[in-house]
Design goal:
alpha/beta; 12 helices; about 45% helix; binds 3-methyl-2-oxobutanoic acid
Length: about 280
Amino acid sequence: MNKKSICVFQNLKDNGEKIAMLTAYDYSTAKALDEADIDGILVGDSLAMVALGYENTYNITIDEMLIFIKAVARGAKNSFIIGDMPFMSYNLSVEQGLKNASEMIKAGASAVKIEGCNDHIINLTKRCVESGIPVLAHLGLTPQLLNTIGGHKIQGKTADATEEILENAKKLEKAGAFAVVLELMPAVSAEYITRNLTIPTIGIGAGVGCSGQIVVTDDILGKFTDFVPKFVKKYVNLHDIVLQSVVDYKNEVKAKLFPSEKETFELSETEREKLNVIK
Ligand code: KIV
């Protein structure tokens, strides 16, 4: 299998096929996603909560993100990997954003995701693309702006708000973004935005009308249980499976049932005799 390129996204949209993306933060998960031939892997800053136990995404740094990107890149050899630019790693200046985006590419990502839309972000998107760094835009609910938004509020709830998101998406499309994540908005709003853009939209809590979908892998596997948004469908309950397996292991250790002969190495008869140990 060849390594996927940025072309996958526009090709799928143009062929009327949906784009299926997931997050990964570690080597083993990345390997599974790669084997499943997923269309794109996001090393999302959601790892701040899911993998590191923070309350939100504010505390994750670029240096920490790079560790996870490297792990994912080692596991997902054929996938298109996108590194999520964390809070304040691109807001200070275009130079800061470019430098940190280039670190993500050097760590093994093929593109970066940047939240929001203002003159600075449009300019940064342009400069990244000119420098050979593809950009996935992110509109609707942008978790790095949670404090200014005032919580996990559904976006694009009016026609005016939907038009405003579309205008921003068009600006980012013009700046060179190859796709745009639309987070937490009514399905009709996301579908309207999708219909009026050339680049694909990747929805999360934005209905079936987007060009593709992304969700946090730990959410659909039922591994992350701190909060489960309404838009998450659990395909398995890994938390319960892990918990039961750990309890079974503990009980077997206490009952001397583990390790059994099957998991044990033997010492030869000759060596045993030297130690004077009788079977
Ligand atoms: O950080 C993240 O995982 C995201 C989502 C779009 C899934 O930004």
